[in-house]
Task: structure prediction
Amino acid sequence: MKGKRKSRPAFESEAQERAFWENHDSTGHVDWSKAQRVRLPNLKPSTKPISLRLPVGLLEKIKTEANKRDVPYQSLIKVWLSEKVASK
Result:
């Protein structure tokens, strides 16, 4: 988009800015042709604890596999779930 850009409004809080951008298009405010990729190596994805009931035998097998790989069993479960979802 060529031409004059709209000025971005001043925000009093992050919540106010988030609410604004949820309801407004950024193309008139930002020159995306000058955008650059950014790496955020220390950014960790948000997680949410869940409760999951598993049969005792299944959990024991998972723990055995985790011990063979020398990883926590909960981490192994997350890896397996991620791989399964990605394969769909």
The chain has a mean pLDDT of 89. The first helix runs from residue 14 to 22.
